[in-house]
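S1.2 Input.
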Amino acid sequence: MPSLDRLAQTCEALVEANLGRNGVQGLHQTVWNATSQYGDGASEVAVFRQTMWMLMCWLVTVRAWVPETAVPEAITWIERRYGQQAAALATTHAAILDLQGVPLGEIRLDEDQPERIASWAQLLAGLCVTQGDGSVSWLRQFDPPEPDAAMLAWLEGRERPAWQPRPWPPDPRQVPEIRRKLVAYLDDPDTRWEHAQMADGGLIRLIPRADSFGLAGDLLTDYELHRLQKARLYVVDADMCQVAARKAARPRTAPLSAHRVPAPFGFLLFSEPMPLSLPGQSGGPRGEIVAASWGRWDPGEWKDGWWQVAEHGILSEPKFPGDAHWWITLYEESADDGEPGDRPQPPVEPHQPYVLHAGDILAQAADEAQLPYAARAVIACWDLITQERIGKPLTETTTLERKPSKARADRRRGIEDDGTVHLVTIRGRAAPSTDQPQAALPHQRSTISYQHRWTVQEHSRSHCMNPVGHADGNCNHEDITILEFVKGPAGAPFLRRDIVHILRKIDP
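S1.3 Output.
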């Protein structure tokens, strides 16, 4: 391991990059180049562990020194500089540390990710600006002591020689195998017992009325197995994840309906994890969601009814408005350490179920008590995939078919879906350069003769499906997404509006 001082200098460079204009570019290579100079044969795993450890020690110590409002202020700074997605990631990775006071030794560190290092570096940059003197040297007063023997073994990668970081996202062709392992995992007696214990402890929001929590756990498991066995498989790439994340943060402009759900049963994997809460939402759930399953659901299938479980285990009888319902289960990355055991260990595990109803209008920001931000991101993916059904296609899909022999093996395990993976991406997403000639723009309903070009920001729109009957109210509207585009005649000068914010102190 390099000396503490040299390791701190490497981390200083990462934080300094975030204080500059361009942020962290090529972080993976940046960290590797910065640490390979030590020449001590450290593996890439050890490089990331050491960098994470230094940044984490700074964060934990700074958190104990600054006021309670410091982290939200730093995240607000990140949002202004890098955007909502970066702020959401910073919130998630700050939550991993549990900045409310969990001892450093209890924090799980085996999930080494360049993304996490970037978020921690951005968070520390925000703290330098909002709480320090604006320079990275301010952090050096929080340097940790030399690590003990156990921590040093972990930092040098000596405690588990065969361990390698699990890549995320997995190869899309592995999604049918993930589903197969997940089905086997859920059907295992240990998992059923765990679901019964979670129902007994009030950790599942919606449970069937049953004579015992064991029966309730079995029913919940059977329903989820049924959904997974019938699920059409989707993988949304990183670009689409980012569009869905932005869309999930905006109000949805039309009620939920069956034709905006891409399949009756589905399993969707995010190439980039989605945070459970939006930045700045205090008291919301923390963590990241990497996948989700859904299925049409009839609450009347269980004749004894259902219980809604509120905080402190308080039970109430839920209402199920509308004539169509969908059960969504969010999945987080499995915390299993990869050790062999009797129970199958898929890379994802259930987090929490939620129920949606036809006619739901998600007009406001995510209500953490009902539907978290990650679940809204699932609905955003639905909207993006099905936008072609209303004549406004936005995505394109590549299918990866399962081998017939493996599909037959799936059917022997009760899986009814054929295992075809639908890889979804945003159509023609490459951003046009403002310095290059522009392609012909679609017809714009306007008689104005524009003299400039400008960028129209990505937004949602309530699109009228019957403009002729709009004035009489004889129409229906659909929620559509308009991606960022350049408007104006080709060849016209590009209009840039530089906004200057003037801050004045108001005397009382």
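S1.4 Remarks. Confidence is low (pLDDT under 50) at residues 21-25, 99-108, 160-165, 430-446.
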